[in-house]
Amino acid sequence: MVNETETLGGSLEDLYAFCAVIEFGTLSAAARERGETKGSISRRLSRLEQRLGVALLARTPRSVSATEEGTAFYLKTRDALALLTDASASARAAQDVPAGHLRLTTPVDLGVGVMPPLLTAFHTLYPQITIELLATDAPLDLSAHRIDLALRATPGNLPDMNYRASALAHFRIQLYAAPDQPLPEHPNELGDYPLLASRELSGATTLELEDERGRRSALTVRPVMRTNDFASALQLLRHGVGIGPLPDLIARESVARGELVQVLPQWHLSRGTLFAISLSGAQAPARVRVFREFLRQRLGPDSYTG
């Protein structure tokens, strides 16, 4: 005799056939209902009884009826199969209906500088989806931390991984300043203006710029202030500390509100791509699919030209 797990896991169709015989009264009626032959139903019943080691049905040439053990087994099996059907329907619904809990991780810069207005707008569209944002620069393991979607910004392609990655938007790192600041007209003039260095830039810094034609300009500058993240750089620039670099994805809201302006808009320091990474692909739950598409539409597949 096989173990219980193997019995139940390996014979669901046998269980459905057994219940059909009880409910429709004959092997022929059960076979018609299930689209099988009478012989197939008979073999399923024999296999089920052999696995359980008990007679479930009393058979005569003209009829079939449940034994006492068969009746008790039917009542429990019927309820168990109903629960299984309901669970299967719920799982299929989760694939089609945007609902449930969305667990998201982003770098701190994105979590602070980009996500708040986007998450607010998304929640307005899908109030039945609850959202949890983990803003961290640590590369979290998606499976261990039960992450539905991770956003990663990189200047090149992502390394090979066992995750599904899709590009949401391209971005450029450009120079910005508060609108009341005096502004240069050419990169060579930047050394005459107060500069904020963000991320790895510090001390005597070589600032390398490229325009849309591929022309490059490099100059040595000495920043008046530095910070190791773009989120605080955004706030410092809004408060008029000087001119400094920001990804356009982070600066765009402040530019739209008139709090920042682009400096030398035809020039950029670097460019990159924002990726959405998930464990699952086409079979991702609806809540993940709609959020990924929402970000793609709001951020745009191309945030720069040239």
TrEMBL record:
Pfam families from the UniProt entry: HTH_1, LysR_substrate
UniProt-listed InterPro entries: LysR-type_TF_proteobact-type, LysR_HTH_N, LysR_subst-bd, WH-like_DNA-bd_sf, WH_DNA-bd_sf
SUPFAM superfamilies xrefs: Periplasmic binding protein-like II, Winged helix' DNA-binding domain
Residue intervals passing through the bilayer: none
Annotated keywords: DNA-binding, Transcription, Transcription regulation
MF annotations from Gene Ontology: DNA binding; DNA-binding transcription factor activity
Alphabetized CDD domains for the sequence: PBP2_CrgA_like
UniProt domain HTH lysR-type: residue ranges: 12-67
Claim: Transcription is one of the keywords in the record: yes
Family: Belongs to the LysR transcriptional regulatory family.
Protein name, as recorded: LysR family transcriptional regulator
Species of provenance: Halopseudomonas pachastrellae
